[in-house]
From TrEMBL:
SUPFAM superfamilies linked: Trimeric LpxA-like enzymes (SSF51161)
Source lineage: Bacteria, Bacillati, Chloroflexota, Anaerolineae, Anaerolineales
InterPro entries (UniProt xref): Hexapep, Trans_hexapeptide_repeat, Trimer_LpxA-like_sf
Chain segments carrying region Disordered: 13-33
Pfam families: Hexapep
Protein name: N-acetyltransferase
Length: 107
């Protein structure tokens, strides 16, 4: 059975199967219309930015972050991938948040 599966795959000149899977595109960030995101901020793919968020210039958000209602992210703040920032949190200048961190509400 295994030989049949391999023989159906495309092979390179050495006879080894090629990986023909297409790379998946990352989903774009979703930004609520009431959010104020500076054009000089960097927002990673797959981020979700909710109501009344303010993100200042030079801020960097990694991929797949969730930024809840009324969050303020100051200039030059660095946020890693897969970070969840709950409602009403304030992140001030110079802060670096590592990957996978949860920041509770009103922090």
């Amino acid at each position: 059975m295994r030989e049949i599966e391999v023989s159906l795959l495309k092979k390179n000149q050495g006879g080894k199967p090629l990986n023909t899977a297409q790379p998946q595109e990352k989903p774009p960030a979703r930004i609520h219309p009431t959010a104020e995101v500076s054009p000089a901020a960097t927002i990673g793919a797959g981020c979700r930015i909710w109501h009344y968020v303010q993100i200042r210039e030079g801020a960097v958000l990694g991929e797949n972050c969730i930024v809840g209602k009324d969050v303020y992210i100051d200039f030059d703040v660095r946020v890693g991938n897969n970070v969840k920032i709950q409602n009403g949190a304030y992140l001030y200048h110079g802060l670096t948040v590592e990957d996978g961190v949860f920041i509770g509400p009103r922090a």
